[in-house]
Amino acid sequence: MRLLKHPVHRAFQALARDHGPIFSLRLGSQRAVVVSSAALAEECFTKNDIVFGNRPHFILGKHLEYDNTTVTMSPYGEHWRNLRRIGAVEIFSTARVNSFTSIRREEVHRIVARLMTGGRQRVELTSAFNDLAFNNMTRMVAGKRYYGGGASESDAEVAKEFTKIMKEVAELGGATNAVDFVPLMRWLDRGRFEKTVKELAGNMDRFFQGLIEEHKSKEEKLESTSTMIDRLIALQENDPESYDDQLIKGLALVMLLAGTDTNAVTLEWIMSNLLNHPDVLAKARDEIENQIGSDRLIEETDLPNLPYLHNIISETQRLYPPTPMLVPRISTDDCVVGGYHVPRDTILIVNAFAIHRDPSLWDDPTTFRPERFDEISGAKEGGRFLAFGMGRRSCAGQGVALRVVGLTLGTLIQCFDWERVGEGEVDMAEAKGITMPRETPLEAVCVPRPNMKRFFP
Fold first, then answer.
1. How confident is the model over 216-229, as pLDDT tens digits?
2. Would you say 166 and 261 are in contact if contact means Cβ atoms under 8 Å apart?
3. How many domains are there within the chain?
4. What are residue 347's DSSP bridge partners?
5. What residue range is the signal peptide (predicted)?
6. Does residue 407 contact residue 303 with C-beta atoms inside 8 Å?
7. How far apart are CA 342 and CA 335, in angstroms?
């Protein structure tokens, strides 16, 4: 039971130091194997990728993920391949991602305009990044902004409730809920945990069903600017069996759960690191000034020309991965990992946090140094870098995430000078959760750069 305490990724990292990069343990009645090395992670996700192609079934997946039928939790097979294909063609294709460029730009500019209203001021960035990430996803999914200008009071209340639900899900999720593994704990709990999950799932389902009904009732269909839900409803009209409401809700659920908290948390950690390393911040600003200047605002098309900015993102994701332990897999057959026999029905937990801080892979592994990604050939290969997972079940939304984070970060650096609120360094302690948020909300002092104010009259 000691291992079920948070932060679990640190507990597993400590165990790996004592017992090696692969060890097994019992999560109640369930056998699990924990992998903490890049070579073994690569072995799991290449040689044994199909064996580890399924997810274990937890209470959250049963009730929240429509009985484990979403693209995240669905067993490897025809249904999962179909969901993955829909995502690749209808959601994450280059054309679809490009069609939402203006949405991402508008949401970033809104947060910048809000920060521009005062002079030198102390700002709380955690909620700002949460609002930005949520609006980005809901506008791409459903064409609605829930925070800030253009959002009704009722929509804002709905968003607050939904955000609260997402945070609860993030705290409840993972492979560490005792009631999922220990029959005695389930009896002692008297169903309270499952009741909580059912209530959360019901609230989420009503939210997504409401969006679907709202879009079905629309009289005009704007094909060129249609949202994800619009597009899926159009496919449903031609093939109602393949594109039923549950499939649409499941895809929307994954988009919001996977694309909101992870982006917001990543931005928080990036800014935390930059505040503690003003030399890195200055170097990033110099790159933006040299490549773009101050005659216009940064665009997504500029991002490929800003390698140091990308290095900052990568180094932050190395030290503070969006999911410190990858979403668990389960073996469908006996296999061998690192020379050890792994029986069928064993849960696989890959500790990305430990791999990203492995001193055999990274010099000075706990030091924030973006330059390392220029110095190391193949720094993201061979299971060394798992910010978006690995293998056939890796994150399909990586491209969108990097655009959202890159554009937001670049614009904030271009438009403001940033300082810590006090003389001491920003506290870098992490809280519990699937996405490893900061323990305390991030505050900073922002000073609008005079030559950038003209873009936000």
1. 887 665 554 589 99
2. yes
3. 1
4. 32, 330
5. none
6. yes
7. 5
- Apex CA 315: angle with CA 309 and CA 316, to 5°? 95
- Apex 114 CA angle, 163 and 405, nearest 5: 60
What range does the domain containing 197 cover?
A: 2-455
**AA letter at 214:** E
Cβ-in-10-Å burial (0-12, 13-18, 19+) of 304 comes to exposed
446 is in an annotated binding site: no
Cβ of 274: how many Cβ atoms within 10 Å? 25
Cα dist from 7 to 236, 266, 388, 439, whole Å: 42, 18, 20, 11
Burial of 187 (0-12, 13-18, 19+ CB in 10 A): exposed
Quick one: how far is CA 148 from the chain centroid? 22
Question: How many alpha carbons fall within 13 Å on the CB side of residue 234?
Answer: 13
Burial 7-46 (b: 16+ CB within 10 A, else e): bbbebbbebbeeeebbbeeebbebbbbbbbbbbbbbbbbe
Distance, CA of 145 to CA of 227 (rounded, Å): 13
| 398-415 helix and 101-116 helix, angle to the nearest 10 degrees | 30
Token code pair at residue 236: 């449903």
The string of pLDDT tens digits covering residues 68-117 is 999 999 999 999 999 999 999 989 999 999 999 999 999 999 999 999 98
pTM, full prediction: 0.93
d(CA 157, CA 148): 12
For residue 278, give every residue at least 6 positions away whose Cβ sits within 8 Å of its Cβ, in sequence order, or none.
none
Per-residue DSSP letter, 106: H
- From the list 72, 11, 22, the residue with the least C-alpha distance to 335 is 22
